[in-house]
Design brief:
alpha/beta; 12 helices; eight-stranded mixed beta sheet; about 400 residues; five-stranded parallel beta sheet
């Protein structure tokens, strides 16, 4: 096969990871076609958090300044005991954090970070979109790869990247493993600042950790809104998916929580309910000229706030690997997986453990509350260097 920038890559999925991958490959000069099953490119959800590693990736994609303009830069990360309201840990993510990691810590509406990448992608002449296109099958041969849509139409390319989320068709065709339904349910909502309790209007992602549950809040869109997230261990046998939620269900899981954080549960007019899932890490994400990225590759629980951040890192690393291997996709994809699989597995395992820490009860709760007593900010930063110290320049090391 001839290698060069005249080759076309098909990307399945137009979410944050898919758009980031399209941008990364287009910046290398490749032709990119994005296939999205929805009728229009967009995002659902509420707020997400962006660590310094995410901004390093956004800068490499050429959209860092746009994303910063839509972000709220926070002062601290706070972990609080939801029963006693005592502080457990506080990390300064202001000037010292920026000086250490080279970038800020911020929060942003999911639709706004998606839009920040979408605007760049729509303006790039090498990228085309096909919406209302649901990929049903994929295969590859000596001539390249083919994606077959719901109408039986083939989409030919030199390489294919599955960015199609937890229920990835590409992963199902190449790996065939099952998702791991966690039993943890996440409710998300956005409320206007006027409806947010004054005592909770803090410029920080604040986690209120309770037994088998926790609550999170932080500002969005210049502080005009607040993102609310509550998580609990479900009493039911859950199936992965997103539905409308009920206030009655939320309230039933937060008995015994102090009134200070619990009052948030009465504020939203509506909730969206996510029954969460992740996957155990695997040693390969694809075959030949097919690979996967983002939630298709490493769906993870939200406890480290790194799902979107890791998808952005994936995209940048993929683009750099293609450049390094002079557009030989088989070599590039193998190199991409070599560095990304162990890193994302570490994040995934760490997120699982952080979920256990958040939801501790009894004596384990007492141990948790003492874990970080006396720790300096420098010590916090040292322990987080592996996560937030990621850079595009070293992404293939």
């Amino acid at each position: 096969m001839r290698f060069g920038t005249d080759q076309k890559v098909v990307i399945i999925g137009g979410g944050i990871g898919g758009l980031a991958a399209a941008q990364a490959l287009a910046l290398e000069g490749l032709q990119v076609e994005v296939l999205e099953q929805a009728s229009q490119i967009g995002e659902i959800g509420a707020g997400i958090q962006l660590g310094a590693n995410a901004f390093a990736a956004l800068d490499a994609l050429g959209v860092g300044d746009t994303a910063r303009a839509r972000s709220v830069f926070t002062d601290q990360l706070r972990l609080m005991d939801a029963i006693s309201t005592e502080p457990i840990a506080e990390i300064d993510v202001g000037v010292p954090y920026r000086e250490r990691f080279g970038n800020p810590y911020a929060v942003i509406h999911r639709a706004d970070i998606h839009l920040s990448i979408l605007e760049a992608v729509q303006n790039h002449p090498n990228i085309t979109f096909r919406t209302s296109t649901e990929v049903r099958d994929i295969y590859q041969d000596e001539n390249g790869v083919v994606a077959i849509d719901q109408h039986g139409k083939p989409h030919h390319a030199a390489a294919l990247i599955g960015c199609d989320g937890v229920r990835s068709v590409v992963r199902a065709k190449t790996l065939g493993d099952a998702v791991r339904v966690t039993g943890h349910v996440v409710y998300r909502a956005v409320v206007d600042v006027d409806n947010m309790p004054t005592a909770l209007q803090q410029n920080a992602p604040v986690v209120w950790a309770g037994p088998h549950c926790h609550l999170v809040h932080y500002p969005l869109r210049g502080g005009r809104q607040y993102n609310l997230v509550v998580t609990f261990h479900s009493r039911e046998q859950e199936q992965w998916g997103v539905t409308d939620g009920s206030k009655e269900e939320v309230l039933s899981y937060f008995q015994g929580i102090h009134e200070l954080p619990r009052q948030m549960l009465d504020k939203p007019d509506s909730w969206r309910r996510w029954a969460t899932a992740d996957r155990d890490p695997v040693e390969s994400w694809g075959q030949g000229r097919i690979t996967i990225l983002g939630d298709a590759a490493h769906p993870m629980t939200q406890y480290l706030a790194q799902g979107a951040c890791q998808a952005l890192e994936d995209a940048v690393t993929l683009g750099r690997a293609v450049r390094k291997h002079d557009f030989n996709f088989e070599k590039a994809f193998a190199d991409y997986q070599r560095v990304r699989i162990p890193r994302t597995a570490r994040v995934l395992y760490s997120a699982r453990e952080m979920g256990r820490i958040y939801h501790a009860k009894g004596v384990e709760r007492l141990v948790r509350n003492s874990l970080w007593q006396g720790r300096t900010q420098a010590q916090f930063y040292d322990s987080l260097e592996w996560l937030y110290g990621w850079t595009a320049e070293r992404c293939l090391d």
